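ESCALATION

Customer reports they have been waiting on this structure for their group meeting. Please prioritize. Original submission:
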Amino acid sequence: MERQTDFTTGKIVAPLLKFAIPVLIALFLQSLYGAVDLLIVGQFSEASDVSAVSTGSQIMMTITNLIASLCMGMTIFLGQKIGEKKADEGGRIIGSGLVMFMSVGLALTISIPFFSKNLAAIMHAPTEAFDLTSAYIKICGTGIIVIIAYNLIGGIFRGLGDSNTPLVTVLIACIFNIIGDLVLVAVFNMGTKGAAIATVLAQLVSVLISLLLISKKKLPFEFNLKMLRWDRKIIGKILFLGTPIAVQDLLVGISFLVILAIVNALGLTASAGVGVAEKVCAFIMLVPAAFMQSMSAFVAQNRGAGRIDRAIKGLKSAVAISFIFGFTMFYTAFFHGDLLAGIFSNDEVVILAAADYLKAYAIDCLLTCFLFCFVGFYNGMEYTRFVMVQGIIGAFAVRVPVSFIMSRWEPVSLFHIGLATPCSTMLQITLCFGCYFYMMRKLGRK
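Update from on-call: job pushed to the front of the queue and completed.
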C-alpha cells in the first residue's frame, strides 16, 4: 500500500481530518452520483419519472447500504489487524471476503429483477410511475454484482487506512454516470430506464479501471488467487462484526421506505417532493457521515493497539468539528430549502413540497453530528450489536409510528411527517450516551 495511515501514534485531529477529507469528498461524489440521475431526469423528463427514480433509487440504496454495512465488518477486521501489527493476515481476510460477497451478489442478481414489481407495489408507487419504478429496480438489480464489487473496493482500502483509493473509484463512477445520464436521458429521452442503465454502466467502468489501478499498488501483505477461498473462521468474524451493522442499516432503510410508501400514498407531488428532498439530504448529511466512516477505521486501529483513551479523544474531536458543519447545514436547509430543491426540479409545486420536508431534516442536522460519530466509534469498538439495537429502536419505536401518525393529522404536512426523523435521532443519542457512560464505568474511567 502506497499510502497507509497509522492512527495509533502522534497527533489525533490532523491525521483524522487527513483521512476524513477524502472520505468526505468520496461521499460527496457518491451523493452527486445518485443525485445526477434525479437532477437530469427532473430537468428533461416528467414528474412520473422523478417519482420512479426517487422510489427505485431508495430501494436500491437500501440494498446497497446492506452490502456496504456487511463490508464494514471487513473494514473493522482489517483495521484491527493493522493496529495489532498483523497486516500479513490481510490477504486471507480479503480473499474470504471476496468469495462471500460475490456469492451474495449472484443471489441478488437473480432475485431483485424477479421481484421488481413486488417491490414497486410494496412501496405504493403511484399508478403513473409504477411501471417505470419496476423497470428502474429491474435494471439496477441486474447489475447488483457490479455495485457490490464497487463497494467492496472502498471497504477494503478504508480498513487499510487508505481513503484515497475509494475516492478515485467514486470519482470515476461519478464522471461516467454524468456522461451516461446526459446521453441516455437528455439526448435519447430514455427517462427512468436511461438513468438506471447509466448507473450500472458507470459502476462497471469504475470497477474495471479501479482494479487496473489497484493491481499496480503495493499492498502491506501478500495476496494471490489461492487466498480466494471460503474460510469459515474469517467469514464468521466478518459476519460477527458486519451483520449487526447490516441488520441495523437494513431495518433503518426499511423504516425510511415505509415513510416513503406513506408519502407515496399522498399522491405524485408529495412523492416527487420527498424524492427531491432525500437527494438534498444526502448532501447536507455528508460531514457527519464522513466522520462516521472515519471513526470506525480510527477506533478499530486504536482498539487493536489497546489505546482506548486515544479512541475516546478522537470521538470528542470528531463531534466538535462535525457540529460546526451541522449548524451551517441546519441554517441552509431550514431557511433556503427551496433553493436547494430547485437544483433537482423545475416544478414549483414539487419544489415547495420538498422545501417543507427539508425543514424537518434541517433540525436533524444539529443532532446527527453526535449520533453518526457515536455510531462510528461503537463500530470500531466492536459494539456493533448495540449499534443495531439503538438503530432499530429509533426506527420502529419512533420514526415509523410518528410519520404514520403525522400522515393522518389534518392538515397533512410533509414537515410534520419529516419530524419523525429528528425525534428518532434524539432517542438514539440518548441511548448512545447511556452506552458511553456504561462503557466508561466498565473500563474504570470517569
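Sent to customer with the following note: The chain has one domain: 13-442.
Escalation resolved.
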